[in-house]
Amino acid sequence: MERLVPPLTAEEFAAGVAAATAAFGDPTRREIYLFLRDADGGATAGEVAERFELHPNVARHHLDKLAAGGYVDVQVDRIEGSGAGRPSKRYRATAKETGLEFPARRDDLLITLLVRALRMVSPQEAEAMAEQVGVEYGQSLARSMAPGEGHRSFRVSLHAVADALTAHGFAAHAEPRGGSLAIIAEQCPFGEAAVQHPVICAVDRGIIKGMLGTLYGETVPETSASRPRGDQVCVTTV
Length: 238
What we know:
The chain is α+β, with helices and mostly antiparallel strands. It is built from nine helices and seven strands. The chain folds into two domains: 10-93, Arc Repressor Mutant, subunit A (Orthogonal Bundle); 108-237, Trafficking protein particle complex subunit 3 (Muramoyl-pentapeptide Carboxypeptidase, domain 2, 2-Layer Sandwich), CATH 3.30.1380.
């Protein structure tokens, strides 16, 4: 008989998102993981550095991040030579899963209550409140991804934000748009509620602003396309 797996709680999902984005928020780290997954026998830090044209210390940093998340196993071999030999670490991808459900499960009751709460103030106040909620959540999410690492480059930060949004059900990716970079969201976890009440879109914009402010620096994201306006996807340019 098939074992039924209970759905993730909100706390479990948030923890899973934080763990996955910490490990895979960097695009180079994702490529390294895929490389190790397909490499028979794994690879050393030197081999990874050569494959991706990285300094060995940078390659080891990425590998250690993956190992800390349980996505990579580390085997220490000893190379024959003088004395007891020089230790060599070989990294192999594990079979660990992220434990996340995609797309993210919606709670329609909470969305309905959010909409009702926002109706109690003026449209301008509602948008400001919704964006501030998103900013604060985005800041918290970014801090949990890589505490103490300092700021990243803009491009790396934007890809990390897109990955985090995808984990929350937005199916997002980053790409160039009109001389700028943009985050394209092909799905929306708020569903029809966002179409009926476009003010909810300010939450998305706030999350992007809060995450980028923590990972990179202050930015001014702008919504250039959205489903409530009749567009096929939601686009936030930065």
